[in-house]
Amino acid sequence: MESVFIGELTWQQYQARIAAGNAVVLLPVGALEQHGHHLPMNVDVLLPTAVCERVAQRTGALVAPAVHYGYKSQQKSGGGNHYPGTTSLDGVTVIRTVQDIIRELARHGVRRLAILNGHFENSMFVVEGIDLALRELHYAGVEGFRVMTLSYWDFAEDPEVIKKLYPDGFQGWNVEHGGVFETSLMLALYPHLVDMEQMEHHPPATFPPYDLFPVVPERTPRPGTLSSARGASRAKGELILEVCVNGIARALRDEFGAQH
Amino acid sequence: MESVFIGELTWQQYQARIAAGNAVVLLPVGALEQHGHHLPMNVDVLLPTAVCERVAQRTGALVAPAVHYGYKSQQKSGGGNHYPGTTSLDGVTVIRTVQDIIRELARHGVRRLAILNGHFENSMFVVEGIDLALRELHYAGVEGFRVMTLSYWDFAEDPEVIKKLYPDGFQGWNVEHGGVFETSLMLALYPHLVDMEQMEHHPPATFPPYDLFPVVPERTPRPGTLSSARGASRAKGELILEVCVNGIARALRDEFGAQH
Amino acid sequence: MESVFIGELTWQQYQARIAAGNAVVLLPVGALEQHGHHLPMNVDVLLPTAVCERVAQRTGALVAPAVHYGYKSQQKSGGGNHYPGTTSLDGVTVIRTVQDIIRELARHGVRRLAILNGHFENSMFVVEGIDLALRELHYAGVEGFRVMTLSYWDFAEDPEVIKKLYPDGFQGWNVEHGGVFETSLMLALYPHLVDMEQMEHHPPATFPPYDLFPVVPERTPRPGTLSSARGASRAKGELILEVCVNGIARALRDEFGAQH
Amino acid sequence: MESVFIGELTWQQYQARIAAGNAVVLLPVGALEQHGHHLPMNVDVLLPTAVCERVAQRTGALVAPAVHYGYKSQQKSGGGNHYPGTTSLDGVTVIRTVQDIIRELARHGVRRLAILNGHFENSMFVVEGIDLALRELHYAGVEGFRVMTLSYWDFAEDPEVIKKLYPDGFQGWNVEHGGVFETSLMLALYPHLVDMEQMEHHPPATFPPYDLFPVVPERTPRPGTLSSARGASRAKGELILEVCVNGIARALRDEFGAQH
Amino acid sequence: MESVFIGELTWQQYQARIAAGNAVVLLPVGALEQHGHHLPMNVDVLLPTAVCERVAQRTGALVAPAVHYGYKSQQKSGGGNHYPGTTSLDGVTVIRTVQDIIRELARHGVRRLAILNGHFENSMFVVEGIDLALRELHYAGVEGFRVMTLSYWDFAEDPEVIKKLYPDGFQGWNVEHGGVFETSLMLALYPHLVDMEQMEHHPPATFPPYDLFPVVPERTPRPGTLSSARGASRAKGELILEVCVNGIARALRDEFGAQH
Amino acid sequence: MESVFIGELTWQQYQARIAAGNAVVLLPVGALEQHGHHLPMNVDVLLPTAVCERVAQRTGALVAPAVHYGYKSQQKSGGGNHYPGTTSLDGVTVIRTVQDIIRELARHGVRRLAILNGHFENSMFVVEGIDLALRELHYAGVEGFRVMTLSYWDFAEDPEVIKKLYPDGFQGWNVEHGGVFETSLMLALYPHLVDMEQMEHHPPATFPPYDLFPVVPERTPRPGTLSSARGASRAKGELILEVCVNGIARALRDEFGAQH
C-alpha cells in the first residue's frame, strides 16, 4: 500500500491521487524548540506529523513534508527564545514558506489543505501566509482553494477527556509546554525519546498580565517546561491521539467532504 | 500643564522629558475594524489611547500617536476581514511600523516603551516588530531598551471584577468583540459614538476547533459582534477603566521603576 | 448627522455610503515631526486632517483615519531627521501602508481616493504605494480605481493669496516648515497648541544646491523651522483654509464628479 | 593617463587610488525614459555621466558605472510612465541598488561619495538607499562615510546663466523635460543622438495642483516633452556644462576637501 | 549513546555539546522534487541527511533538522518546476531560512557549520543566506563563524570511483538527476522506497546551450530523470556513501579541526 | 541607420520596432568585478554588450541598457568578493532588477527577451527574477512572454573551437576568469583596456570540493584571475566572437522565429 507521505511517493503516484479529485493535503508545521529536561527538541514536529499520518490513514489524505523550523518561542507559551537549541525563524520567513507551499500545491491541482500546527507561536504567521497565498491565487484566477488551520490540542477539549488527562484539575493550555499533554503523546509515540528520569517537577508557571522584551529568563521555570509532566502516561497519550485523530478526521469530512 | 501626548509637545518639551531620565513612552496600537451595529470602527484605537492617556497622567509617561491601522481581523476574535469598513494591513507592514517607531524612540534616548494593544490580531506582529527592533539596536550598540506589551483587558481578570461585569457568567475573552466589555468602556468614554438602539442581541458566537480560509461569513453573528452588548453600562466602563489604569500603572512601576 | 470620519461610523453606515455610489474617500497622510519651538509635533497630521474634514463636509466625502507617522524629515524641507521627537518610518513602510489601505478600500467597493499629504517627504513613497496598489488591483481584475494625491498648500498658489499671506514677499514653499503658513493654520484651528512666545524669529534658511548625509545639523536654523512664523495670524489661517478647501473640493468635483 | 572610470581600471589601480586617501567616488544615477521625439531615451544616463567625467578630470575623483534604470517617470516631471520605452524600477529596487553600492564602496575603503542624479524621480529613493546604507555602516562600526547628492541642473541656477539660457523667460525646472536645457547639453555632448528635425514645438505643459493615478495621458504634451526645445543650442549646452562642472567641483572641494 | 540529531536531544544535552567547544553542526538542505518514475520525491532530503548522519557518527558533529523544501527545479538539473509534486520555494524564502538558522546557531554558541546540499538549485540561495547571516553576525560583534558548503556528490569525483560507477563512461553531473548515482544511494539506504520496475530507461538528456522560460516540457525526458538509472546497484550506493562520508569527514577535520 | 541600442532610440522609433511584431530584446547583465592585473573591472559588462550588439546587427534585435552591477563574486568562479573594486549587489536586488525590467518590457508589448549574462554568479538570481516576472505577467493576463537566458561562452563549446583556443588542453570553464577566453575577447574588442605587460602568469586555480565562508583569500591566485591569460590573442577573440554571435543568432531564430 502506498505511503501517506507525499515525499515517499513518485510524482506519478502523487499526480494520480490529486487527479482522482478532492484530494486533501495535510501540512504539519512545527519548530525546533526546547521542551524541558526530559523531551527532545523536535516534539513540535513529531507530534503533528504523527497526528497527520494517522488522520491520513483514516481519511485518504496525503501528508506533505513538515516545516521543521518555526517562529520564535515566546516565554508564556514556549519558555522563551533565549534557550540554547531553540532555533527559530523570523516571522516573514514563516509567512513566505507557507505562502510558497500553497502556491505550489495549487499548481498541482490541490484545492484542500489542512495545516496542523504543533507550535503555538506559528499561528498568526501561518494565517498571514495563507492570506497572501489566497490573494495570489485570486490574481492567478484560481478560486476555490480552501485551507483549514488547526492546533491538534484543540480537539482534546472535551471536558471528559480533560478530566481523564488532568484528574487534579486542568491548568489551561497556556502552560502546556512539555507538560502532561505533550509528554503523554511522546510516551505513546516515541517512548525512546522521553527520559522521565530527567523530568523536573515544578508548579505551573505564572506570569504577569503583560510580556517583557527582552524576556526576564528567570520567569520561566528552570527546566523550560511551563508545567510538570508528572502524571503523563502512555495511556493518556493514546487517548489524546485517538480523540484528536477522530476529531480532525471528522472536521475534514465536515468541511472538505469525502475524498475519492 | 503639558500634554501627555507627544504629538502635542514641541520637540524641546519632549527632549526635556526624555533627558530627565527614565521616561516611559506608551504606544497605543489599534485597528480600523467593524464592531457591530452599535459601535464605531475606531474602537480599537480609541480605547487603548484613552487608557494610555490616563496611565500617563498618573505615572508621568508620554503617549505616542496611535497606530491607527492593524492586522487583518480574524473570524474568531474580530468577526473576520470580509466586512466592509474593516481596513487592515499586511503582517509585514505592522511589523515594520513597530520596528521603525522603536528605532526612532531609541535615537531620541528613550529606553522604556509600553505598547498597549487594542486589537488582538496585532499581537504577534507587534512581537516580531519588537524583536527585529531590539536586534537592530543591539547591532547599533544600544543596550538596555526594554519593551512591555499588553492588552489592557488582561488587567481586568480579577474574578471579582469579572463577576461584576458578567453577573450571569463570563463567556471568555474570545467572544469579547463588541460585547459588554468594549461597549461599557465606550459608554464611559465616548457615549456619543455608541448607539445602543442599533445594538443587536445574540447568543455568544460558537466556532469549531479550527479555522477556515476563506472564512465562511455566515459563521460570524450577523451584526459582526461575537457576543451581545446587552448588559453594558457606563458604570461598568468606569470600573474597567479604573481597574486597567491601576493595573497598568502598577506594572509600569514594577518593571520600569519610578520616573523623574 | 453622521460623522465624516470613517472611524466614527459603524460598518453598516459606511457600507451604505459606499453602496450609494461614487463615494470619495480622503486619506490624510502626515508625520510626527518637530516644527520649531512654538508648534507641536503633530502639525503634519492635524492640518491635512482638518482640511479633509472641511472638504468632506462640503462634498460628502468620507475621511479615513490619518497615517500618523511619515517618511524621514529632510533637512531642506523639514529640518532633518536628527531632531528628538521626529519619529519617522522607512520608505518601504510608508509604501506598504498606502498600498494596504488602497487594497482594502477597493475591497469595500471604493473607487475614488484622494490622499492629502501634510508632510512633503512622504510624496514619492505615497506615489509608489499607489502604483503598487493599482498594479495589484489590475491583477485582481479591479479596474477603474482612481487616486488623486495632493499637498494642500499647492492650492494656495493664487498670487493674490500669496500676496496677502506674505506682504513682504514670498520665500517659496521650500522654506515653509513651521513658518507663516503652517503657524497661521494652527492659530486658526488649534490655537491652544501654538505658543507664539516661544516662536524664534530667524531669516529664511539657505542651503547649498546639494544635500549631505549625514546632515550637518548646524545648517538648519536652530529652532528647527526653515522660516520665521512672525507674521502668522489666525486670519491668515482662515484665508488659507478657505482657499484650500474650496480648491480641493473643486478638484474632486472636476475629476471624480458628483457624489450621490 | 588612467581613466576616471572605475570600470576601466584594474583592481590594483583602483586600490591605489583609494589607498592614497580621501578618494571621492561619483555615481551617476539615471533612467531609461522617453525624452520626446528628438532625443534618445538614455539622456538621463548620458548627461550625469558626462558631467561626472568632467568633474572627475578636474578634481581627481573616480566615476563608478552609472545606474542605468531609475524610478518610474511621473507625469509632471517626465511625462508619465505610460510611454513605450520608458523602463522603470520599483522604488525598493532603486533603494537597494544604492544601498548595496554604498556598502561595497565602504568595504573598499571609500569614505566620500557624490551621487549625481540625472532623473528627478529617483531623488527620494536615492535618499532612502543612502539612509539605509549609513545605518548599516553604523552597525558595522564604519563611521565617517559621507554622501553628497545633487541634481546637476541645480548648479545652473545663477540668474545670469538662466537669462542666457532662457532669454524669453524661464518656465521653471518643473517643465524641463526634453526642453532647452537637456537638448542643449545633448547638442554639446552627443549631437549625433539629437534629431532637431523631429523636435516638436509646443507651449510648456500646465498641470492642475494635484496628481492623478492612473495618469490621464492626454495631459502630457503629445511628444512627451514638457516644454519646447526650440532655442536649444550647442553653445548653451557648453555654457551649462561649464557652469555645472565648475559648481560641482567647488562643492566637492568645499565639503570633501582636497584629494591626494 | 546520544543521537547525532539535534532534534532528538534535550536542550541541556545540546548545550553541553556546544559548550564542550568546537562543535560542528551539519545542516542538510534538500527539496521536494520529482525524481522520475522509480524514486520518491524526498530523495534530495533523504540523501544528504543520511550522509550527515554518518559523517556525524564519525566526527562527533551534530545534525540539524533538514530544510525539506528548496528552490525551484530547473530543467537542465532537475527536469523543471512544472511537474506535479515538485514543491519549491521562492529564492528569498530559501535565503532567509538559511540566514535565520545561522543567526540562531550563532546565538547558541556554534561557530562551525557545514551545509550539505542535496538539491543543486539551492546552491546560490544558500550562498546568499550565508553571506547575509555573516554580515549580520559582524554587526552583532560575532566574529569567527565559519561555514562550509558542499554538495556531497562532489566528493565522489575520484576518477577510480567514477570508473566503478560508470564503467561505460560518465555523462557528467549535469544529467545526474534520478540516475545511477542517486538511485544507487537510495538502493543502499532506502531500498523500500525504490521501485526499479518502474524505472524507465532513456538516453541522457541533451539540451541546447541556453535556457528557456517557461520551459518547453517536452525537452525533459518523459519520466523526469535526466539519465537512466540502469546500472544502479546497492553496492555502488555503498561505495558512494563510503567515499563521500570519508571525504566530508576529512574536509571537516582539515578546515574546522578536531572536536572535543 | 538606426542604432540597435534602445537607449539611443526615441520612444517613437522604439515603439515602431515593437509594433512591427515579434521584436526580440537582448539584455546584457554583467558586474563590476576584478579581472586580474591586466584587465579592467567592467569586462563582464563590455563583453556581453558587444556580443549583443553584433547579434542585434545580424538579427534585427534591440539591445537594452546593460545591468552594470551583479551578484557577489564567488571564489571558485570570480576570485571572491573580498577584492577592492568588486562592487556587488545582494541577491534580491539582482532578482528585482530583472523582474522590473521584464514587467516594463511586457508593458511596451515586447514578448521575446534574451538575457545575455556575462557574470556567472548572476545566473540563478536572473532565473528567479524571470520566474517572478512571468508569475506577475500571468496575474496581469499577459501570456506568451518568453525569455531565453544564456552565457555567451556556452556557445564556444564546439571541440574544434576549444582546441584552437586551448591547444595545450582546456582546463574547463570553471577557471575561465580573466584567462585566455575573456582576455582574447578584450584584445579583439577593447585592446586599449588590456595591459598584457601586467598580466601575471600562474597555474590554473585548484580548489577543494567545497566552499568556505568567509573565503580564505590566499586560495585565489594572487592576481585574482583563475587561470593564466598567456596564450590570449586578438585572433582568438575574433574567433570566439564569430562563433558566439553565430550561435546565439541561430538560437534566437530557432526559438523566437523571424523578426519583421
TrEMBL record, chains A, B, C, D, E, F:
One of its GO terms (molecular function) is hydrolase activity, acting on carbon-nitrogen (but not peptide) bonds, in linear amides. Belongs to the creatininase superfamily. Keywords: Hydrolase, Metal-binding, Zinc. The keyword Metal-binding applies. This is Creatininase. NCBIfam families: creatininase. One of its GO terms (biological process) is riboflavin biosynthetic process. It comes from the Bacteria. Its cofactor is Zn(2+). InterPro entries: Creatininase (IPR031034), Creatininase-like_sf (IPR024087), Creatininase/forma_Hydrolase (IPR003785). PANTHER family: 2-AMINO-5-FORMYLAMINO-6-RIBOSYLAMINOPYRIMIDIN-4(3H)-ONE 5'-MONOPHOSPHATE DEFORMYLASE (PTHR35005:SF1), 3-DEHYDRO-SCYLLO-INOSOSE HYDROLASE (PTHR35005).
